[in-house]
Amino acid sequence: MDAAKLQSIHISQDQRRRSSGPFWLILLLVLVATGVALYFARPWSEDTRSLKPTQQAAPSATAEKSVPLAKVENKQGDTVLTVSGHIINRQRIEVSPRVMNQVVWIGVKKGDHVKKGQVVVQLDDAEQKARIAEIEGEIAVARVAIERAKVAYARVQKLRATQNDTAEHEDDARLAVASAEAHLQQLEGARATAQVWLEWTVIKSPIDGVVLEKLANPGELVSPQSFGGTRGPSTALVSLGDPNDLQVEIDVNESDLTKVSMDQRCHVSPEAYPDKIYGGVVVEIAPEANRQKGTLQIKVQIEKPDHFLTPELSAKVEFLK
Prior knowledge:
Elements: H1 2-9, H2 13-66, H3 69-78, E1 79-89, E2 92-95, E3 101-106, E4 113-114, E5 119-123, H4 126-161, H5 167-200, E6 202-204, E7 209-214, E8 221-222, E9 238-241, E10 246-253, E11 265-270, E12 278-285, E13 295-302, E14 314-320
Antiparallel strand pairs: 1-10, 1-14, 2-9, 3-5, 3-8, 4-7, 5-6, 7-9, 10-13, 11-12, 11-14, 12-13
């Protein structure tokens, strides 16, 4: 039974030889296909390698053109001196009263923008108004006196025409009319003076600018001059400045004065905003140096200032060739 089964599964030598033929054929086909693939793949790899240097060289050439090295060097070479200073208002105006008076109202506060002619402070005007009313009454009386003098003069003239009065009386009547008219003119001048004093109680801004500081308060007595001491009345009401008229005030060492001249162009940048750069020009060179510091004061006018520039902040100034 076992021998019969073994005989049935036995493979002869011829069958073994025939079954190994297809295996070698498949192996040969695989080798041929691999060789063909390598043959066609080799030129593409060489082309790819040959293109890489060209592709890498092109960006490097573009990068070299995009870097403004020459501009940076020229900018640095144009700067002959760099000094720090402080931003200031070219004009700082302190508005003061014309006469001693009391503050009734202040319509502005620190930082407010004002227009030229805008009312900023009102002083007490009761005395000035009362004086004007008094003078108006005196003027009315003077006009009545003129009319009386003219009537008297006309009467004397009629009597003089009929030889019933003397020439002396006629001259006195004529001069009385002239005196009354002169008195009226004097009173009108006094009224004009009182009107000016009344106008002085209304304080207006002399410029378009901003309120830098409020120096008085309602109810406070103010005076155009100081009487000394610390308890006297204030001599100013508000301090004004023009935010569009700014300068940089700097002290230049005497060893660097040869690098600075009038009308010299500058670059100004505030320390708080170093990325902001403004044009400037030298407009003032002090006629006298500071002996202790060994410096000379220079002022640079800032062109087209904006809200980034605040007076009394520091700024860097680059003097150009």
